[in-house]
Amino acid sequence: MMGAAPRMEEIEKQPGTRGFWSEVGKILLLQVLVLLVANLLYQQIAKIQIELTLSAKPPAYEKNKTPKTPFPGVQPEDRKIAWNEPASAEKALKDYTEFVVTKRPWLLVIDRLVWAFCFLLPAYFILARLAKADRADFRDQFDGGSFGIGVSVGVATFCFVNVAGGLIFFFIGKPQSNPLEVALTQNLQGNWTLLTWALLGVSFGAGFVEEAFFRGFLLKQFAGKGMERLGLILTSVLFGLVHYNPKGSWVGPLLLIFVGLYFGLSYLKTENIWVPITAHVTYNSSMLIAAFFLGDRVVG
Predict the structure, then answer these.
(1) Which of 6, 25, 136, 273 would be a feasible disulfide site paired with 10, CB 3.0-4.6 Å?
(2) In sequence order, which residues have a C-beta less than 8 Å from that of residue 298 and are 6 or more positions away?
């Protein structure tokens, strides 16, 4: 078809291989720039959000004890967070996560809205507006067929992660999860209120935002240049790395690379952004529902 972008295999066969890898480099540079801007923006807003939430938290919440003061009328010790000190920042994040999960679960939805603002806006302005890159069309038809494929991919991905994760954890032991995963698995069992807000924030919110970002912007940019296979691999690796926790294990990000591959492949095969979104929502929901019934025995 006239005007169609050459596919990756065709570009690689052409004499200008250097031009091909130069184009790949430009795409990666733009995407890394988006990730850096988005992460920086999210960190700054998240700090404000954490400080405001913890400052409004009743002091007696800490182990249900009223803080003791040395003299009558003296206020408790200032709880200002020293973000440049790892111990202080880690404690603040842990306290915030525990408070949200146990007392203010609706903040899980607010956090996803903040994530959407910080990641989707830079992606739109840098990739779509500045670089004129292709992006997903949310006018794609969402019908029973796309819904069924998405649910099937999500369930299959959930089964794969639990089987593969279970085998890995059998040999090396279950690694420490991030604070949110720990708090959710410890408090979700039989908790309908937390499950409802977690489904809205962690399942629907994260499912929509992350797929719109990684598949709708990043993978679609590669696909628009005829580099579907390479884009699938690179964006899946980025998907896993973004979820890496320096104090955690490599197992989670490694499994999430395969999760990204499944979701990305479903998008490339169907060319419908609602398929990976549905798959992601199904995958996250399966994890939450499993934790609702099994508690911290769930693998994910």
Answers:
(1) 6
(2) 185, 287, 290, 291
